[in-house]
Amino acid sequence: MTHTRGMSVDVHTPDGVADAYLTYPDDGAAHPGVLVIQDGFGLRPSLRALADRIAAHGYTVLLPNAYYRHGRAPVIELPDLIDPVQRPEIFQQLFPMIRELTPEVLRSDVGAYLAWLAASPQVTEGKVGVTGYCMGARLAVMAAAMFPGEIAAVAGFHGGPLVTDTPDSPHLMVENITAELYFAHAGDDHHMTPEHIAQFDKALDAAGVRHRTEVYAGAQHGYTQADTAAYDSEASERHYRELLALFDRTLIPSRRNPIS
């Protein structure tokens, strides 16, 4: 696997400065850009490792701190193993920050992230890929709808909620999406019930969005996150295979038989 170079960078946004992690192959070449949208727990070592693994496959990856308005990462103190059942106060700290990530805020931030990637000498010209986890999958769908001319592919893992009864529900925003989508829902996830999944797929079908949806049976919400109690190594490895295959066929069409 290709050696990568990772570093902290600052991305200027209309609301301030977002600290972020940038990682890319250390080969002196430019590579297609990828934006990673965090889960609720935020920018931390395990997510940096996830970004490194994507980068090692041939991508320049930007992982911003979505909570930058509250300070640089880590915004809150997290245990080495995150188990919300044992530590309910973690979500009590996070929920107010999660609720602040409205469509208006997201449009502003993602616009800045995409502009930063486009200006980076480590990024090739062309559309980028986006992958999101938990709440990040919800935000990734919204980003694809907001920036159809700049996003070629979106993957979402154990994402939610993607279907709500509010006007800003992601499933109501998919008409503008031109990207190819891949979603892998957890088999054990109250955020996305079978009814929610069916409704989300129906909306994508109606909008003519190219997509594939899978349910990883037995996996829990959060299965990709190695520092959480929900981590499932088999489901996580499957996630990497599908994610990299998606990016390979949409960002590097000449690639064949992608490896993990």
List keywords for this structure.
single chain, 260 residues, Rossmann fold, 8 strands, 33% helix, disordered C terminus
Model description:
By secondary structure, this protein is α/β, with parallel strands linked by helices. The protein has one domain: 3-Layer(aba) Sandwich (Rossmann fold). 33% of the residues lie in helices and 24% in strands. The protein has six helices and eight strands; from the N terminus they run βββαβααβαββαβα. The protein has an eight-stranded mixed sheet with strand order 1-2-4-3-5-6-7-8, with helices on both faces. Strand 7 (180-188), helix 5 and strand 8 form a beta-alpha-beta unit. Helix 3 crosses helix 4. The longest helix is centred in the C-terminal third of the chain and has 19 residues, at 233-251. It is globular and about 45 Å long. 46% of the residues are buried. Mean pLDDT is 95; it is low at 256-260.
What's the short version?
The protein is of the alpha/beta class and 260 residues long.
Would you count the extended β strands for me? Answer: 8
In DSSP terms (H or I, runs of 4 or more residues), the helix count works out at 6
Largest sheet: 8 strands, mixed
Query: What's the CATH topology name?
Result: Rossmann fold
Q: What percent strand?
A: 15-25%
Task: Indicate the low-confidence ranges by residue numbers.
Answer: 256-260
Physical arrangement of strands within the biggest beta sheet? 1-2-4-3-5-6-7-8
Q: What's the SSE blueprint?
A:
Blueprint: E1 4-13, E2 16-25, E3 33-37, H1 45-56, E4 60-64, H2 89-99, H3 103-119, E5 128-133, H4 135-146, E6 151-157, E7 180-188, H5 194-207, E8 211-220, H6 233-251
Parallel strand pairs: 3-4, 3-5, 5-6, 6-7, 7-8
Antiparallel strand pairs: 1-2, 2-4
Helix pairs in contact: 3-4
